[in-house]
Amino acid sequence: MKLDLTLYMRVVGIVGALLIGGLNAASSQTVISDSDEPSLYTYCQRFQTLYTQIREQSITPDSARVQFSRIMYGLQERFHSQESFQLDSIQRDSLRRSAQYFNFPIKGYSPSAIGGKHGEGYRGTGFDLFDYNVRGSHPAQDIFISDRNQDVIDDRTGAPVDILAMTSGLVIGIETQWKPGSEYRGGNWIWVYDPILHGLFYYAHNSQVDVRPGDWVQGGQKLAEMGRTGFNAYKSRSPTHLHLMYLQIQPDGLPQPLNTYSWLVTARLTK
C-alpha cells in the first residue's frame, strides 16, 4: 500500500495534538496522580519514575522490564486505537525507508557531523536499558558541532545549537537537573515516543530542555539546545555532541536498539 506521506503526517499531527491537548506537565521530576484508566500523561509519569529508579538502582532489572513492557503496551494501545496510527509492518517499513519521514536532529548541520566515517561509533552489543551497571555498549550515534572552546556556542554562528525532533511523537520523559560532578551519564536528556514506529528516541547531553512530559512534538520541532551535560560529555576530552539513540519496541514490549545511521544520512536538513 502506497502512502501519501505529506497528507498522512498532517493527519497524524492533528490526531496527536488532539490526543495530547489539555495536558499541562508539571516539574519533570514530580509524579502527580494515577487513575484507574491511565491517561497519556500518566504513562509519561510512570516512565519518568521508572527511568529514575533504574538510574538510582532502586528497582531490580527484572522488575524494571515488567514495568517498562506495561508502559509500552499501554501507549501502543492508546495510540493504535486511533485509525491514523494503525499501520501494518509493510507500511511501517516503508516509512522507515523514506527520506521524508526523518528530520536531521541538529539545526544547521548535516550527516558529515556524525562521528566516524560511516557512523562506526554505534555499538549495540551488550546493551541493557534496565541494568545501570552494564557498561561498554554505545547503541547510538554521536553528532558533533563546531565548538573548539567548549562553551556550547557554535563557532560558526556564535549562537547555541538547536536539537530537533527526528519525528513527531510524545515526550514521555526528561531530565533537567544535571549538575557538574554528577555521575549520571546522559546529563539532561529527552525521551520521545513515536507511536507510528512504536519506538523511543533518546536525545542526551543537552544544556537546555524546551519540552515537558506530555508534550506532542512535530518532526523538526526544537526540543533543546546542544550541551555538554553528562558524566563523560562534560569532560574536556569529549567534543560537544548530541548522543542520539533509538529503541525499537519488540512484540514483548521490550526495547531493541537500532542503528539510526541510514535514517540520518537521508534525513531532511534544517538550516
Shape: globular
Determine the N-to-C terminus distance. 33 Å
Q: Could you tell me the mean pLDDT? A: 88
Radius of gyration computed on alpha carbons: 18 Å
Give the proportion of residues in helices.
25-40%
Point out poorly predicted stretches: 24-35
Largest sheet: 7 strands, antiparallel
Q: Supply the helix-strand structural class.
A: alpha+beta
Number of helices: 5
Element string (H = helix, E = strand): HHHHEEEEEEEEEEH
What does this molecule look like?
Strand 4 and strand 5 (199-206) form a beta hairpin. The protein has 271 residues and is α+β, with helices and mostly antiparallel strands. The longest helix is centred in the first third of the chain and has 20 residues, at 61-80. The chain contains five helices and ten strands; from the N terminus they run H-H-H-H-E-E-E-E-E-E-E-E-E-E-H. Helix content is 25%, strand content 18%. It starts with a helix and ends in a 5-residue tail after the last helix. Strands 1, 3, 4, 5, 7, 9 and 10 form a seven-stranded antiparallel β-sheet that branches. Strands 2-8-6 form a three-stranded antiparallel β-sheet, with no helix packed on it. It has helices at 5-20, 40-56, 61-80, 89-97, 261-266; strands at residues 141-144, 162-164, 169-174, 188-194, 199-206, 208-209, 216-217, 222-225, 241-249, 255-258.
